[in-house]
Amino acid sequence: MTRAAGIAFHALDLAFLRGASLVVPFSLRAEWYREWRAELWHVRQSCLAEGRTWSAECEVAGFCRGALQDAACLRQEKGEVAVASASMHGSARQCLLCLCALLILCAIVARLLPGIRTEEQSSRMVLRDGVVLIEDGQNGSPRIPFSVYTDWASRQQRFFDRLAYYRTDRELAEGGAAFSVAHASDSLFRVLGVDGPGDGEPGIPRALVSEGMWRRAFHSDAGMLGTMMRIGGRRVRIAGIAPAETMRLPGDADIWVVEPPDQLARTAPQRAGYVMGLLSASGRAEMDGNAISISAFGADGVDLELRGVTLEPQSGGPIAIFLFSLLLAVLALPAITSVFQSESSFASHQPSFRTRAKRGAFLASKLALVAGIGYCAGMDLAYWNVIGYTPNAELLQFAVGFLICLFGLRWAIMDQSRRCPVCLRRVTHPAQVGIASCNFLGWNGTEMICTGGHALLHVPSLPTSWFSRQRWMYLDTSWDFLFADPASHS
Amino acid sequence: MGTEAKLSHTAAMILQAIHAGYRYGFSIMETIGLPSGTVYPAMRRLERDSLIRSKWERQSIADAEQRPPRKYYELTSAGIASLEASRRRYPLLERLIPTEEEKVR
After folding, report:
1. ipTM score
2. pLDDT tens, A380-412?
3. B55 Cβ under 8 Å from any chain A Cβ
4. What gap in Å lies between CA A63 and CA A66, rounded to an integer?
5. A97 FRET partner, CA 20 to 30 A, in A70, A215, A250, A304?
């Protein structure tokens, strides 16, 4: 065994002891860890005296396992769970650790979901400069009859260097599964500036499958590349995964089949499809914002009013959706919680600037973590069973993000109002004080105390003009005898 | 705790080991041959019952020997009485764990 492996084993042993020490009651923890660490030194000296071997390291690890039993025994005997965890229980550190753990969990799930990766990739994707989608200038429909395209494309173009056409059909594949198949002219991938499927064997068109379909239908199997597939009654060869640029094209195609010109020419004249164009230098000069107006003549001399528009993202991707939901949650927050409901008489003992800064930083951290959880959890739920973009997934992401942000932010603010202004620990041990008064002159409410012994919180049951908000009362040193555990005084 | 209280075999062996001069956790464990998960909790209970007490070794001694300081255990008077009672109950106890001097011989 190498020296590095020995160091790693020692680090693992120490980490195990440190972990086990968390089980030990706080008041005994430091000494317990010190003793076990010292004992570990002796055990290592004894077991590894004849060299580093796996069996010796296993023996040392076996010794460390006993630490857990010892720690559990101490905890059981001490029988003071509440006091033992006083330093951590309800503390700001515990709160932030829990939120961090939740955020990390959500982020890990988000990393593992293929739908999220696809969506992020798609939202970041920018089409080549000068690529536009041709729409009908009259009704704004992006679908153009094939006859119009052929008439127009056969003429000399001033604004375009290249044009491409594709139409999408719902077709059945082997096994009865239906897919959205895009039949495209071979110029489509040149317009987009990406590699197409290449030339295939005569009579067998080559196809590219979308990443979503590859994951969904082929279970991410790379072995399917190059295989034959029967779609719509004819065989095509799967040449690869469609480039990310195709995700931005309308039609939500699962499979892109490049048709030879003679095959595409058999398309019914009135069959509408999508026309993409690559602007020439003069076309780019004519662009008005993200659109260009095109006037042309059809075969029968009829004026064609067309419009080319760049394919900007519908939304700014998941981040933009989340930011919008966060904004709405912040705006709606005052409707469900009173933001300015806490604080009062702490006049005799005002917390220091540092304490107040720490309090502010804690609140800001909580809000940021809640927002992060809202983003990741929203993505997780929206794309849990979805591969790639769907409007429903975006809607779900928005709804989940909004709800988590709204109620998460509310929780963060409410939680802050229940935390001691000095040590940021949550106040506990609620006690009902007073009895309800018919004339509202008698006070009744709930009192809670900071386990660190810093303050008492009075919360009125029925807010009155003279006691409308919760009040903090600072506890001076005369209260110290109630808080015997020094660990709880931070 | 009464001196006549019956100790478990493990507890009796630990008391005997400490009496024999094995005074820190690992040496006791090594001597009686029981796993750490048994020995240390038993020592906690003995200390809780005031049969043994612990004391940290001075840092200067540990530094001189280039090792971490040890936590030494020793018998209290109640512990000595309990050990006597245990020896009557477990006659082989003394022969099972020899003193450090006997071990050297």
Report:
1. 0.89
2. 888 887 766 667 888 888 999 999 999 999 999
3. no
4. 5
5. A70
